[in-house]
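I wish you would study the pair of lines that follows with an eye to the fold:

===
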Amino acid sequence: MQGEQQVYNLKVDTSGRIVLPAEARARNHIAEGDTVIVVEDAHGLHVKTREQIKAEVQAYFADLAPPNVLLSEEILQDRRAEHERD
C-alpha cells in the first residue's frame, strides 16, 4: 500500500468518536487499547500511531546530524572536557 491512498467515510457519533476500519487498524498494527495521535495542520486532520510519530521525529533529526557522527558521543566528549576543566 506504500504510496497508495485509502479513503474511508467515517461517521462521527454524538460523543465525537469515529471507528477506524479493521483493515486500517490491522495494516497499521493498532490494537484495542492502543493510543493514536490526531495531528491537525493546514491540510486537515491526520491519525497516526506512536510508532509513525516516532519514525517521523527520528527521520527529522537524522537529517540534521552529519553522516557517521554520533551526537551522543559528542555530548559525552563535551561533558568530559567540562569535567576536566573544573
Notes: Residues 50-64 form the longest helix (15 residues).
